[in-house]
Amino acid sequence: MAVALRQLTYAQAINEALRQEMRRDPRVILMGEDVAGGATVTGFEEDDAWGGVLGVTKGLVQEFGRSRVLDTPITEAGFIGAAVGAAATGLRPVVELMFVDFFGVCWDQIFDQGAKLRYMFGGKASCPLVIRTMIGAGMGAAGQHSGCHYSVFTHMPGIKTVLPSTPADAKGLLAAAIRDNDLVVVFENKILYNTSGEVPEGEYVIPLGKADIKREGNDVTIVAISRMVQQALAAAEALEAAGISAEVVDPRTLSPLDEETILNSVAKTHRLIVVDEDNPRCSAATDIAALVADKAFSELDAPIKLVTAPHTPVPFSPPLEQFYIPSPERIVATVQEIMG
Amino acid sequence: MATIVSMPKWGLAMKTGMVVAWLKQAGETVQQGEPIVEIESEKATNEVEAPASGIMRWIGIQEGDSAPVGAPLAVIAAMDEALTDEQIASLLREDAEARRQRTEMQKKPAASPSTARPTATGTVRAPTTAAGRVNASPAARRLAQELGVDLSTLAGTGPGGMIGREDVLHAAEAAKVAQAATEEVEERDVEVDGVTIHCLIAGPVNAPHVVFVHGLGGSLTTWSLNLPAFAEQFRICALDMMGAGDSAKPAADYSVAALTTFLARFLDTLGSDWQRVSLVGHSLGGAIALSFAQQYPRRVEQLILVDSAGLGPEIDATVLDLMRSQPTLDSVRSELTNFFAQPELVQQALVEQLYRQRAQPGAHEALVATANAAFGNGQQHIDLRDTLPGLNAPTLFVWGAADTIIPVTHAQQATSSPRSRLQIFPNCGHCPHIEQADAFNQLVLSFLRE
Amino acid sequence: MTTGQTTGSAQALDKARLLRMYGQMQTIREFEERAGKEFAAGKVPGFVHLYAGEEAVAVGVCSNLTNDDFITSHHRGHGHCIAKGVDIREMVAELLGREAGACRGKGGSMHIADVHKGMLGANGIVGGGFPLATGAGLTAKTNGRGQVAVCFFGDGAANQGTFHESLNLAGIWKLPVIYVAENNGYAESTPVTYHMSCRDIAERAVGYNMPGVTVDGLDVLAVYEAANEAVARARRDGGPRLIECKTYRYHGHFEGDTITYRTKEEVDSYRARDPIQRLRNFILERGFATTQELDSIDRQVRDEIDDAWRFAEAAPYPSPEEALTDVYVSYP
């Protein structure tokens, strides 16, 4: 009997994870700007006008009502901070920071309150909060709506950072994040929302801190983050035609980082490229490069190369934006450069 | 002054020997040349004679045990030497170290020699990056250390010319192949126009090819002390000429001219990689080599003529008479004594080996035919002196100063040929390649490497 | 301190100013409608947030300002740009990401600026403009020549922390900043009745020791008058003020918004009170100009918009390497 393979979009997979987790645990609530939308508008008492700015949380207020799907005013410090407070006192909020670029408005609540309170209180408190946020360029949304910045979050002790690259990963990782008792930030690449993939039905979690080898290979390890996994896979196809076998490693979470999978891969291929859409200084890419240079030094047969965005904000104009985002062509050229 | 008696290498293929019996025990006095131990190798059992006089002080390998070529068998202390155990141990350690270093040197891949450039202060630096370090990846460095590859001899194929793992692996493989090639000695029987020729081939397949041609009454075994050294760096072939050694001995034309043509046919049969070779010829073999160089100038890279025939009229009649007589152990021993300035080199093993060869069916007839074709009574029929001026190939003349068979004066012919050199070995007879094997090997090897 | 409604009056208004205001409002309207059309045709990358319906606020306020005064704007900023005198061609070129754009293509719709004209930029961060305007106010006070800063913000932004912190700062330092709320009733899809804990934004001014008034944001003359008074006082005594304009946006929060959270009846009711039509009626009724003159202005505006789009569509893109420039003033 053939099993029908179910395809969901990345956005639908996230929606499904939220629904399943909210059914599973009544303490899970959603908060954010227009996560339902149309609050107090006649006819929208249990209906959403938006379901999130790009529709990711659509349909949830219908099932769970406006006491568990809370539209907030545009006050990030206020409501992100409130989510921290709620998490510390028994609820399990999933709060949306609409665009990661807005983190400046509420960074204190995240890094100085939420991330630190367990430690500062001697392990006697916890903040089981999930912050969902959109990252990524490619939509022309310009300098304040297109960044990545997960390196800043990964840098902070007390924050866990999750970056799914496929619909199946998105569902399992978000479920894991919601069940995790720490402050987890889930970075959803907005360009991936409409991409489709096989997603298992029912509840499942993908453990945090476990990388995934998206493509096996022998000549070079390409560690790619978030949507850059897709770029790396495209590059790997092109490289295969040129007789180079690339292994694509998707860390899936940056904090905690699956060091073992990365190191084992480099021990096999002896070459490392890291592809990261974030800016290059003090980034996830430099972090991973340092790890490998330290713990797999004598496995390296070539210098470690980082393919990243430039040290600039995200430009608006389409040709500039395309220049900014690491492309499969750039990845291929970089691999060929180190193959000698 | 203590002396170490080591397991000898009899022939190219010998790797180990077994001690059959100790003829002298520890504490016994021995004279130089006296047999002290019986060794069995893959091919034969022979006695090893004391290289020096003195007292047997230490025995390393017991009866029934085997040891590799070069391993210490015994230590002989000088008559008045009081040798302590520590001194023996230290002596053995030094010997082992010397042998290890020799082996290491032999394992090095034959890469282009490094050009060491002196700096302003006069110190010499190995070829490196501008910063003074070899440009090799971390993985390559670790692998090179594990495999014993010298990074400074490699060219890198990695980015920016960096030496990578693959480069190291290839070098290690090549070294293994080279070493394997050196250790793989092929003993072949080659059909040349219906005549079976017995020969030995060894050495790295891609190295320059060198062919060894023995003299009258000899066989490829005459080169036993030379072939191991040459096979490390060259592709060598030593043949038993038609009518000699273990080759066929048909009723045929055994003149130098015929044997020269035959040599060419032999090389054709071996294959296209033997189209251009260097030749080392001894005695009558030298005449054949010189004649070959005149007839096939494009097939000769370099020429080494050792106490060669064809360079003057004189030849010793006594030896020829001994060769022409029916072979006995005594006649063979007498014959051999003429060849060396140092009579102690005529070891029993050598006598027996030569006698066995001469006793083979057809061997004596072929020997006589060869001798008669080339030599009369005290006179050489062959005269190749006028070929010398036209010789293109660089030529090395080697002669023993005390050669009683072909006089050293013939060596002066060397000056007629434009690109030649002469080396005369003092206190040496007709066979410098045997009598002073190490010096001979060094001389000829460095000549070939030019 | 006064809080209360004012009605529009024509004091200190002359024909030239009225026609200028009319022309500006029409320019904004035409610009936005054209932008919406071109966006729907796929010509404009990224997001656009249209100001159509709110023209009276930008024009009414900015008619009291000079190039020496500062304004900050927000994501729905095209109206403020035009009212403050930013070149239309440069604006369209910026929407299309061309090198000739006001920001050389690097900012796009949400980040158009012209600092030389005192336009400190549209802003993608809700509430991002308050501190900037307050800082401009500090500069103005330091310069001491009577400059003012105006901060345009929406009802959604009135809840941001920066609103409260900035008004407090302006209050304690007595900075010449006029905070102009454009209360169009919705923060994205969420009505102000849900998201705001008081009825009028102007009520919050008292907490920060500054006058706050509420005006009919559909009446450009009412806005003009309130702004005129606020600006004059700010120039004189240097203190901050809050003006709340009740207004309405005809389009969604962003182009692509399904706008299910508003009824057609509601939109229609506002269209019936269209601010441009209202000014037109006023001008005609008071005899400041004829229909032909106003129509002529309409035509002129349309020509300008057409010209700007022709210009922009023919303008070249910046070369990709331009992405790497303008990060710093100085490089080693």
Question: What does this protein look like?
Answer:
The complex is a heterotrimer of chains A (340), B (450) and C (332). In chain A, helix 1 (10-24) runs parallel beside helix 7, helix 3 runs parallel beside helix 4 (103-114) and helix 8 (228-241) crosses helix 12 (328-339). Chain A is built from twelve helices and 14 strands. In chain A, the strands form three sheets. Chain A has a seven-stranded mixed β-sheet, with helices on both faces. Chain A has a five-stranded mixed β-sheet with strand order 9-11-10-13-14, with helices on both faces. Chain A has helices at residues 10-24, 60-64, 76-88, 103-114, 117-120, 150-155, 167-179, 228-241, 259-269, 284-295, 318-324, 328-339, and strands at 7-9, 28-32, 69-71, 92-99, 130-135, 159-162, 183-189, 196-198, 212-215, 220-224, 246-250, 253-255, 272-276, 305-308. Chain A has 340 residues and is of the alpha/beta class. Chain A is globular and about 65 Å long. Chain B is α/β, with parallel strands linked by helices. Chain B folds into three domains: 3-101, Beta Barrel (OB fold (Dihydrolipoamide Acetyltransferase, E2P)), CATH 2.40.50; 133-181, Dihydrolipoamide Transferase; 186-448, Alpha/Beta hydrolase fold, catalytic domain (Rossmann fold). Helices cover 32% and strands 21% of the residues of chain B. Chain B has helices spanning 85-107, 138-147, 165-183, 227-231, 256-270, 284-295, 317-324, 329-339, 348-358, 363-374, 432-435, 437-448; strands at residues 3-6, 16-22, 29-30, 35-40, 45-49, 54-59, 66-68, 72-77, 117-118, 124-125, 186-192, 195-202, 209-213, 235-239, 277-282, 300-306, 395-400, 420-425. Chain B has an eight-stranded mixed β-sheet with strand order 11-12-14-13-15-16-17-18, sandwiched between helices. In chain B, strand 9 and strand 10 form a beta hairpin. Chain B is globular and about 65 Å long. Chain C has a single domain, classed as Thiamin diphosphate (ThDP)-binding fold, Pyr/PP domains (Rossmann fold), CATH 3.40.50. Chain C starts with 14 loop residues before the first helix and ends in an 18-residue tail after the last helix. The relative contact order of chain C is 0.18. In chain C, strands 1-2-3-7-6 form a five-stranded parallel β-sheet, sandwiched between helices. A two-stranded antiparallel sheet of chain C has the order 4-5. With 332 residues, chain C is an alpha/beta fold. Chain C is globular. Residues 1-8 of chain C have low confidence and may be disordered. In chain C, helix 1 (15-40) runs antiparallel to helix 10 (275-285), helix 1 (15-40) packs across helix 11 and helix 4 (88-95) crosses helix 11 (291-314). Classes of the chains: A alpha/beta (340), B alpha/beta (450), C alpha/beta (332). Chains in contact: A-B, A-C.
